[in-house]
Design brief:
Elements (H helix, E strand, L loop, with lengths): L2 E11 L5 E8 L3 E5 L2 E3 L6 H13 L10 E11 L2 E13 L10 H6 L2 E7 L1 H4 L11 H11 L6 E5 L4
Parallel strand pairs: 1-6, 5-8
Antiparallel strand pairs: 1-4, 2-3, 2-7, 5-6
InterPro entries: Nudix_hydrolase (IPR020476), NUDIX_hydrolase-like_dom_sf (IPR015797), NUDIX_hydrolase_CS (IPR020084), NUDIX_hydrolase_dom (IPR000086)
Family: Belongs to the Nudix hydrolase family.
Protein name: NUDIX domain-containing protein
């Protein structure tokens, strides 16, 4: 039995279309790359959670998350020993290419974040590493070609691995 969990993430794109990703290690699904984000706190909207998680995981307080949704998706994983089915809202934002700021070691350790990096469109489409969601290269290629979607792409449930 999996516990339902609501979450939000932010795809931060730099001026040339690279995306900022964090490398997580999860006890159930293993090592993968995902955008900054995480579970919603009680009373938070998906947008509020996305903004908070972005600040907590990068130290960036100046990125404007205007509410533009890239996609919605659900997936299973284990969080702190609890099997969950997570429903995620993934927002789009623009920002400068830079390193995270501040002392993030405790936050990263708690979330099992191993490292971070900017991924160019070419690197992202290379398919060498596990991504959450797996359709991220195609979704961002469409954004670069056509702009942000008028309505978020609903990926539904995606089986990891």
């Amino acid at each position: 039995m999996r516990i339902p969990r609501q979450a939000a993430r932010v795809a931060v794109l730099d001026p040339v279309g690279s995306v900022f990703l964090l490398r997580y290690d999860n006890e159930e699904v293993g090592v993968h790359w995902a955008m900054p984000g995480g579970g919603m706190d009680p009373g938070e909207t998906p947008l509020q959670a996305a903004e908070r998680e972005l600040r907590e995981e990068t130290g960036w307080a100046d990125i404007v998350v205007d509410g533009t949704l890239l996609c919605l998706w659900e997936h299973d994983f284990t969080r702190a020993g609890v099997p969950v089915r997570q429903h995620e809202h993934i927002f789009l934002a623009q920002g400068p290419r830079r390193d995270p700021v501040g002392d993030l070691a405790a936050s990263h350790a708690a979330d099992k974040i191993l490292r971070w990096r900017w991924w160019s469109p070419t690197e992202l489409s290379g398919g060498a590493e596990a991504l959450w969601p797996p359709q991220l290269p195609e979704l961002l290629a469409d954004v670069r070609k056509n702009g942000a979607p008028a309505t978020p792409v609903d990926l539904g449930f995606v089986r990891n691995g």
